[in-house]
Specification:
By secondary structure, the chain is of the alpha+beta class. It has eight helices and 14 strands. Helices cover about 35% and strands about 35% of the residues. The strands form four sheets. Strands 1, 3, 4, 6, 7 and 8 form a six-stranded antiparallel beta sheet that branches. The protein has a four-stranded antiparallel beta sheet with strand order 12-13-9-14. A two-stranded antiparallel sheet has the order 2-5. The longest helix has 15 residues. The chain is globular and about 55 Å long.
Amino acid sequence: MLALFEIELEVLNDGGIPQTHGHMVHGLFFNILKQTNPELCKVLHSMNCTLPFTLSTLYKCGAHPGIMTSAVEKGKRVCFRTGLFNDELISAVSLAMNKAMITRPISIADISMSIKAIKLLDTEDIADLEQRAAKSADRLRTFRIDFQTLTCFRSEGRSLLFPEPRLVISSLYRSWEAAGGYNVSSETLRKIVENVFPARYDMHTGMLDMGKYLLSGFTGYCIYEADKCLGHKEKSVLLSLLGMVRYAGLGYKTTMGMGQAKCTIIEEKD
């Protein structure tokens, strides 16, 4: 099961949120979950693979991840999102957040906040995602990805600052596997990567101060086109993987607010 929750917080005192605060949301998430399910926290901390969740940075209520000012005022509300793709985790997070809402205030960057609402923005079974992709695959030609928070891909200790198809597809496939999606052959993935091309883009680089190191990334959008040589099978797989963007994000440190993204499919007309 895939689920996307939005947690709405009321600010209890004036203050400022640093630009780099994804690690603070990450810490808050685990502190809340630990109150009701410490064993699950241990399991997540020990996992040496793609984790089955993502977290956004804080953003203005009514907006989307990436829209935030540094100053916050008492009485105002901010939000963060968590994408979950594990049944046990969905149940555990829902329980933990609801318990935290009726107990003590929480804190981010020395600013006290209280949880006011827990909204389920979207949910779907991965099998339904597959079936929907299969039905509309033949009309797929163009899609757009909006990188809403700073995004980067890492290779051999370096930040890669352009969302090449091979990086996007491999990132999504790792999340797909973490969510329990069906196995896709390396040949099918290779054919998809070799026949999806960036068509237009508008992106800007930036840098996050992660405390002990600086991390480069980019925001903006990229429009991709799938070559007509891709068959129904490959397009169906591609659409299934793109369905993960909303929940899993893209690239590096998606559990600390990076890589929040939105995918828009532009179907071919008859």
